[in-house]
Write a structure and sequence with these properties.
PyrR, glycosyltransferase, transcription, binds 1-O-pyrophosphono-5-O-phosphono-alpha-D-ribofuranose, five-stranded parallel β-sheet, single chain, alpha/beta, binds uracil, Rossmann fold
């Protein structure tokens, strides 16, 4: 399978996100990237939009539903949200949506900070495998992988996608 070029996806996502925000009359969105890949995508998206809006970063490790099984990754860092969550229109950005469990964890963490007016989900790739009722509002591309395949984003610049085979 050939994987899409992340730079091309970011440029299409910027167009789609701009239309989404206009349609909903959201004038001051608050951008939040999920570590690690989601922060890289968020930085690239803000650059494409020509925006110098502050970027919040979330580390959802403590909120994962597999936390008690897997423990804490040694690189975990606190989330940094340089703005209020209460009443704000949030743009939550991640690189890959697969089961939806990362986004579930991110929403749980965000709602511990306050009650946003809305949350728009932006993902570079949707693997169309959601185990939860979570879908992106803005997506770069939708891919169908075999059960033994995964994609991995590397970054921050250039952003590159690699196909990994769990069977190897
Ligand atoms: O929808 P899900 O099944 O939860 O999978 C999606 C998540 O998987 C990857 O995160 P990972 O935990 O590998 O961390 P990383 O961003 O640091 O690579 C990816 O960055 C997404 O956040
Ligand atoms: O293929 C996958 C699935 C989940 N998360 C990733 O980063 N890649």
């Amino acid at each position: 399978m050939s994987l899409p070029n992340p730079a091309e996806l970011i440029s299409q996502m910027a167009v789609r996100l701009t239309a989404h925000l206009e349609q909903r009359a959201i004038s001051e969105p608050r951008y939040i990237g999920i570590r690690t890949g989601g922060v890289w995508v968020a930085q690239a998206l803000l650059a494409e939009l020509g925006s110098d809006a502050p970027l919040g970063t979330l580390d959802v490790s403590f909120y994962r539903d597999d936390f008690s099984q897997n423990g804490l990754h040694p690189q975990v860092r606190p989330s940094e949200l340089p703005f209020e969550i209460e009443g704000q229109h949030l743009i939550l950005i991640d690189d890959v949506l697969m089961s939806g469990r990362t986004i579930r964890a991110a929403l749980n963490e965000l709602f511990d900070y306050g009650r946003p007016a809305s949350v728009t989900l932006v993902c570079l790739l949707d693997l169309d495998a959601a185990e939860l009722p979570i879908r992106p509002n803005v997506v770069g591309a939708t891919l169908s992988l075999a059960a033994h395949e995964r994609v991995k984003l590397s970054g921050p610049a250039p952003l590159q996608l690699e196909l990994q085979d769990l069977a190897l």
